[in-house]
Write a structure and sequence with these properties.
By secondary structure, the chain is α/β, with parallel strands linked by helices. The chain has six helices and seven strands. Helix 3 crosses helix 5. The longest helix is centred in the first third of the chain and has 20 residues. It is globular. It starts with 14 loop residues before the first helix and ends in a 7-residue tail after the last helix.
């Protein structure tokens, strides 16, 4: 099942300029008549992903951009990558629960270069998805407690961003699934939904989770 995304219209104001003027983590701009949520993102890549890969920074930026294209087209949510960095510097951690624990303990939402709504850490480790290796988030987001701040996702193959109309690759689908959790979407039994508890190549959100994401779209991120 393949899905082609509609062409995204050109943003009237670039994210970098727009975000620099904002004291808050969200904003509204009119693009095709829909208010937009801007999410400030810091992107990290682990040693395995960086190993023998001079393009690692371009690849992780492209993964986030591809997921952002989808979220912007479906929900009016734009991910603005503000920083890309190597992390951890040396330690190889083939466990996503351990990686998440370290991530929350060692990577703050604010550093000398700015503040972020969301930290996305990509791992190139060949984790066993049946034994603690699934991608994960720090929380299922909601308006009362705040949206999630940390996300770990694995990368299975080299990636090259090919624009907003390209077919979604599996690693992008996995990232979109986790971003759904950040905005409150939960696993379900709908075999056609991207949020089905047994992950596979699906590209559509079910009606209930779609409504949840739209409801939570402008909720504050947790502190």
């Amino acid at each position: 099942m393949f899905r082609f995304l509609p062409m995204i219209t050109r943003r009237q104001i670039t994210c970098s300029i727009l975000i620099s003027l904002l004291p808050l983590s969200s904003c509204s701009l009119i693009e095709s008549g829909a208010p937009q949520r801007i999410v400030r993102v810091k992107v990290l890549a682990d040693p395995r992903l960086r190993e023998d890969n001079p393009r690692w920074a371009e690849e992780v930026r492209g993964l986030v951009e591809a997921a952002s294209d989808y979220l912007e087209g479906e929900f009016g949510i734009r991910l603005a990558t503000q920083k890309i960095a190597p992390w951890p510097l040396k330690d190889r951690i083939p466990s996503t629960p351990t990686l998440m624990s370290r991530l929350k303990a060692e990577v703050p939402l604010r550093d000398a270069e700015g503040s972020y709504d969301l930290i996305v850490a990509f791992t190139g480790e060949r984790v066993n998805v049946y034994f603690g290796g699934k991608a994960r988030v720090d929380r299922i987001g909601n308006c009362q407690e705040g949206l999630g701040n940390y996300l770990v996702s694995s990368v299975s193959t080299r990636f090259r961003y090919r624009g907003p109309t390209a077919e979604l690759e599996l690693d992008v689908v996995a990232l979109i699934h986790e971003l759904g959790h950040i905005f409150g979407a939960e696993h379900n039994q709908d075999t056609t939904s991207i949020m089905h508890e047994n992950f596979d190549y699906r590209t559509e959100f079910d009606k209930k989770n779609r409504e949840v994401i739209l409801k939570n779209k402008f909720c504050p991120f947790a502190k």
